[in-house]
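Case study 2.
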Amino acid sequence: MSTGGPDLFVICKSCGSEVSPYITECPYCGNRLRKRAPKLDRDQRVAEKKPRRSPTPLLTRLRSNEIPGIRPDAHPYATAALVIAALVGCLLWRTGLGGHLPIVGKPGSQWWRLFTAAFTYDNTGYAFVTIGAIGLFGWRLERRHGPLAVIALFLIGGVGGLTATAAAYPDPIALGAGGAALALLCAWATADLLTLRSGGEIEGDLLGAAAIGVAVALMPLAVPDASWIADGVGVLAGFAIGFPLARFGAT
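Prediction:
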C-alpha cells in the first residue's frame, strides 16, 4: 500500500485472494465486497471521503461539577437582596422605626406601603418561615432561570397579593410576603410536577417543599396580619409563571 493514498488491493474475506479495490464482487469466489463501487476522481483514483461535520450542538458542554439546567456561575444576587431587605424590615419594626411600613387602612396616596409591607413582619415565626422559604426557593429559581424570574414572582405574588388584600377589605391591615414565598415555591415545584407527570425522575424534595408551603399558607391562622388573599394570589402566580419557565426555560 502507498503511504497516505488509497489501497492498491484489498483482501477478500471469503477466499483470501488479493483483488482490486475498484470492484464490488470477488472474481474468484463471488463474495460481495461492498454495496457500490468507490467514486473515482478525474485521474481515475479513488476519491477521498470528506469528513462529515457533526451537527452544531444546541447547548454548550457542561462544565466541571455543572448540573444540567443550573448555572454554577450564576450568583443569587436578587434573592439575597430580597432576604436582606426583609431582615432590615424586621429590624426596623423591632426598633419601633417601622410603624409606617405595613398596610394599615387603605394606602391611598401612600401607595409605597404596598411594597414596604412585603418586607415587614411583626411575628418572629412568620418572618422565619416566610423569609426562609423566599431564600430557599428564590435561590433555586435564580440559579435555574436568572434574577428576573425571582423579582417578577416576588412582585406579583408578594406585592400583588398585598394589593389584592388592600382592595378586598374596607379597612385592611396586612404585612409580610407570604404570597411571594408561595409564588416562588410553586414556580420551583412546577418543573418537578411536570417531570413526574411525564414519567420521569426528579431530584428535588417535593414532600419537603409541600410541608414548607403548608406552613406558609397556614400562617394567617396564627398571625392576623398575614393574608389568605395574598397566599392565594401567590399560588396562582407561581403556577402561572412556573409552567412557561419549566416548558421553555428562561436562561
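The chain is about 50% helix and 5% strand.
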